[in-house]
Automatic annotation (TrEMBL):
The UniProt record lists the keyword Transmembrane: yes
GO terms for MF: hydrolase activity
Name assigned to this protein: Strictosidine synthase conserved region domain-containing protein
Domain (Strictosidine synthase conserved region): residue spans on this chain: 197-283
Length: 415
């Protein structure tokens, strides 16, 4: 029987040689011997993600039909490069922002402008690291590991110290006067912290922070999404013992982290799985996790406001075409080994990104949604801070900050 099948196969290939050519060409591209594909040279091994079904999420999401985020203002255009996270100190000064060129800067007012507040690397130099508007492009990538890439920022309100999650230098801290930051955590259980991303500070001094992947660093962060790998971790640094502990592991692109106002739990985002998770710190569920909400796009940082509600920044949105790739890892393995630039492969796969931000409570109820479908103000968003009736919106990929006056939903005339 097997011999008969082989004869039929060989006969088909001889009668239709173009099929043989097609098979050979496809096999050649999949093997990618000259590493011409976007994943060339990488051990690219896609897996299926633990992500909610596309249709159920998209049909139940409360969309903003007015694109209210597009009514915001662009601030500091081409003055500030990739302000991923925004922070304000106890005196109300700021914003502070971590930039693509490796600096943490502080806004000093209209007359003085931006000043360098802190550096994450003692090897930082203006000549090597300060690329200006190119700081958010590939031109910066070859210097990032040397210059640093500060992502999450948090002030300790008791000491005035600024804690920094740097993508290459791990968890760091700098005093209230700024300067060169001091590393606190670069390894855990003998493993390097490859991609420190965001953090928050518990009232007992513990610092919870995310390590996005054990396989890929920040420059290669897109491959974490494409592969669907889940080697990320939620970590905790204990300042009294100067030790770092693994809280959770096996996470798919853990990103933003935020403690609740009463410190009884924390939320963290899983970017690959398009969701927000809750980790309980107190009560009968202490040490357990549960789903808070599934999202229509890819979340970055999450931040609490004075009312105890949570803002999440979302790069939007999932598409039907992406759903096919998510459910079929083998297809991703073939498709992304084609010798075609990533921007074209992404476009053909239906990826069209724009900004959405959402406000939710601790139960996952969506209180408000604002988006900017046309990219008038923001095309990629990383964080939302609500301060004194105004939203401050950061971006890891562009050279500006967006602001927007904001009234809570109960005070708005209509939603």
């Amino acid at each position: 029987m097997e011999k008969r099948i082989m004869q039929i196969r060989d006969g088909v290939l001889l009668q239709h040689p173009y099929i043989l050519v097609f098979v050979l060409v496809l096999s050649f591209m999949v093997m990618d011997p000259f590493e011409l594909s976007p994943v060339g040279g990488l051990d690219f091994s896609p897996v299926e993600n633990d992500i909610a079904p596309y249709k159920s999420v998209m049909e139940s999401w409360p969309w903003d039909n007015r694109s209210r985020l597009g009514l915001g203002n662009l601030e500091f255009k081409d003055e500030i490069f990739g302000p991923e996270s925004l922070e304000f100190d106890s005196l109300g000064r700021g914003p502070y922002a971590g930039l693509g060129d490796g600096r943490v800067v502080r806004w000093m007012g209209q007359e003085s402008g931006w000043e360098t507040f802190a550096l994450v690397s003692r090897n930082w130099s203006e000549k090597q690291c300060a690329q200006g508007v190119d700081s958010t492009t590939k031109k910066q990538w070859k210097m990032e590991s040397e210059c640093g890439r500060p992502l999450g920022l948090r002030f300790d309100t008791k000491s005035g110290d600024l804690y920094i999650a740097d993508a290459y230098y791990g968890l760091m801290v700098v005093g209230p006067s700024g300067g060169v930051a001091t590393p606190l955590a670069t390894h855990v259980d003998g493993d390097p912290i490859l991609f420190a991303n965001d953090l928050d500070i518990h009232e007992n001094g513990s610092i919870f922070f995310t390590d996005t992947s054990k396989r890929y660093n920040r420059v290669n962060h897109f491959f974490i999404l494409l592969e669907g790998e889940a080697t990320g971790r939620l970590l905790r640094y204990d300042p009294s013992t100067k030790t770092t502990h693994v809280v959770l592991e096996g996470l798919a692109f853990p990103n933003g982290v935020q403690l609740s106002k009463d410190q009884s739990f924390l939320l963290f985002t899983e970017t690959t799985n398009c969701r927000i998770m809750k980790y309980f710190l107190e009560g009968p569920k202490s040490g357990k996790t549960e789903l808070v909400v599934n999202l229509p796009g890819f979340p970055d940082n999450v931040r609490v406001n004075e009312r105890g509600e949570f803002w999440v920044a979302i790069d939007c949105c999932r598409t039907a075409a992406q759903e096919v790739f998510v459910r079929n890892p083998w297809l991703r393995s073939v498709y992304f080994r084609l010798p075609v630039p990533m921007r074209y492969l992404a476009r053909f796969a239906g990826m069209r990104m724009y900004t959405m931000i959402a406000l939710l409570n601790d139960k996952g109820d969506i209180l408000d949604v604002l988006d900017d479908k046309n990219g008038d103000v923001m095309k990629l968003v990383s964080e939302v801070r609500e301060v004194n009736g105004r939203l401050w919106i950061g971006t890891v990929a562009h050279n500006h900050i967006a602001t927007l006056p904001y009234e809570p939903p109960l005070l708005q005339q209509a939603y």
